[in-house]
């Protein structure tokens, strides 16, 4: 439990081979840090859990530096200001920062967004109004470029990215087909989010089901999982189709490449003959300058009830490692957030 | 030899498994067709040989319909008008058309470009001023988007696409690294075309050589071959790199996928972490509206001596099958054109 006399933090204990296990992360106690001049002490209220975190546990070359052994795991947080020696922040303000997996953190304010003292749904800054929502919007708008009447497919359909991609595509007049794990999620995607169809990846033949759900082929596939879903999607892509790639959750725990045959000629061949555009992006890196536009658009959609948002809230910092593992297997239902401490 | 009393034509005899052999194509004699109202009889002077032709021999789904068994092989031709019953064409005019692998063809003029009666280098319409040159220009300009100081890599560096890509990239102030088969071609690429480096893919370790030639990584890889070159390029791609895909010659004769492991997760993973844009295009299909602009730009460059162009001329229609096979192995040196008949 969060207290006022120590800083619990979860550090990287060893680099995982495959799925993270009990030895991967370690909960330890530290003293609460003291802010210096121009700095702010933050108390974590909400910690975001996101698939990219698996990547940071590995030493492999990626778009961001790995977490070092013994260092606190990185992560987006919504926190409250405990003590401020920085004019931009007042005691009690809600802030969005990269506080990491711990109760308390220090910041000089750089890259920290002040959400004010009276913000509704502060945790949404980690989801629909933050990185996942922005990923969905920018990837779909600027790479997916969906046109009315086209078919858009997205996996992890009830996750914070997938659900948002699908709902935006519906607003643009597309046929939207989701893929999700389990009947309950599929029902949510069609009944609550308004998807035209949602395929349960745990039931039956994914390729056949997808073909049936996409009688006119696929124009945009928003790639956030990879693996079997990508395999099923590829042969159905229409000429001039677009595949924004924001994540590949299905392969993050892989310790080696899958058995052959080597299907890379098939991928390149399809890209050529179908004239596909496949483009990876790392949201703030690629589209950072679009963030203000995103916030304006998304806030309006939320206000008008055009976009729905669901959180999967886990209670307690100590539950974070298990919850992250569950997410990598698709066990969460909505945006996974850890409540680390009370609001006030 | 071309005569005035019969039409030699090369037809698809059977679909090849792997590399085309002596049974794939068949030379046969037919009577010279007669033009009806609005039609024109053309005599083939030059036949273009291009890698895409291998694809048309196969029944597999592609961007264009396959040639049917017994049908004349398709191909771009520069021909002269023998008889015209169409106002747009006069006897003796040079025309660029899809005449196919034969001495004579009939057209109603649709899609046929009249080059006039006194055009210099009429065969260039099959190369630097036609499909391959346009492919190089548009793929580089609109997908590759090279910026000054960036590194551009292209294979088949002395072929009509590769040589043009590299020379345009040099005009834009890029470092240009070619890959070609053999010392002579490599020397031509650096000494005649002005490439900064050219790697002989037949000598030594391609990956090592490429790494050495691209000390700042690769920003644009113009993909026209696939296979081992793609494998060597991928790990060197810089963040936000672009890969226009116009051809995959190295895999056109493949009868099955290569042995494992399956490297597709590696490709997708690199696209994601390096934020790559990989985009296939079929030139007239994707960029057809840009053709007039291309012609203007390229004609000016040729006039100013800024772009050099080399043809590999084969004498006689009957040599076309063997020449096509050679090209699929990289044996041509410059744009491969068959002289089917005399100029006049």
Automatic annotation (TrEMBL), chains A, B:
Where in the numbering of this chain does the Enoyl reductase (ER) domain appear? 21-338
Q: Which UniProt keywords apply?
A: Oxidoreductase
**UniProt feature coiled coil, ranges:** none
Q: Region labeled Disordered — which residues?
A: 1-24
Query: InterPro entries under this entry?
Result: ADH-like_C, ADH_N_2, ER, GroES-like_sf, MDR_fam, NAD(P)-bd_dom_sf
Q: Which GO terms describe its molecular function?
A: oxidoreductase activity, acting on the CH-CH group of donors, NAD or NADP as acceptor
Q: Name one Pfam family in it.
A: ADH_zinc_N
What is this protein's record name?
Putative NADP-dependent oxidoreductase
Write down the species. Answer: Nitratireductor basaltis
């Amino acid at each position: 439990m969060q207290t006022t006399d120590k800083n619990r933090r979860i550090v990287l204990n060893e680099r995982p081979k495959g799925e993270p296990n009990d030895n991967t992360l370690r909960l330890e106690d530290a003293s609460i840090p003291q802010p210096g001049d121009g700095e702010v002490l933050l108390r974590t209220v909400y910690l975001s859990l996101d698939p990219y975190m698996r990547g940071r546990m590995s030493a492999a070359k990626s778009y961001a530096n790995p977490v070092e052994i013994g260092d606190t795991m990185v992560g987006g947080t919504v926190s409250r200001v405990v003590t401020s020696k920085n004019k931009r922040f007042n005691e009690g303000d809600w802030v969005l920062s990269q506080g990491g997996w711990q109760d308390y953190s220090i910041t000089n304010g750089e890259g920290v967004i002040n959400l004010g003292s009276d913000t509704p749904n502060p945790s949404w800054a980690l989801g629909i109004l933050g990185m996942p929502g922005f990923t969905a919007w920018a990837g779909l708008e600027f790479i997916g470029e969906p046109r009315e009447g086209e078919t858009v497919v997205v996996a992890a359909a009830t996750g914070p990215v997938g659900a948002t991609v699908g709902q935006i595509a519906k607003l643009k007049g597309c046929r939207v087909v989701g893929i999700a794990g389990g009947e309950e999620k599929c029902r949510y995607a069609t009944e609550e989010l308004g998807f035209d169809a949602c395929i349960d990846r745990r039931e039956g033949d994914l390729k056949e089901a997808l073909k049936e759900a996409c009688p006119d082929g696929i124009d945009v596939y928003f790639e956030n999982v990879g693996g079997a879903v990508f395999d099923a999607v590829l042969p159905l892509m229409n000429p001039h189709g677009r595949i924004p790639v924001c994540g590949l959750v299905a392969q993050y725990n892989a310790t080696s490449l899958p058995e052959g045959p080597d299907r890379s000629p098939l991928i390149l061949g399809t890209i050529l003959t179908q004239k596909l555009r496949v483009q990876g992006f790392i949201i703030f890196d690629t589209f950072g300058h679009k963030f203000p536009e995103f916030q304006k658009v998304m806030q309006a959609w939320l206000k008008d009830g055009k976009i729905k948002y669901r959180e999967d809230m886990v209670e307690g910092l100590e539950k974070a490692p298990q919850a992250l593992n569950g997410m990598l297997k698709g066990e969460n239902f909505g945006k996974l957030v850890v409540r680390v401490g009370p609001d006030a």
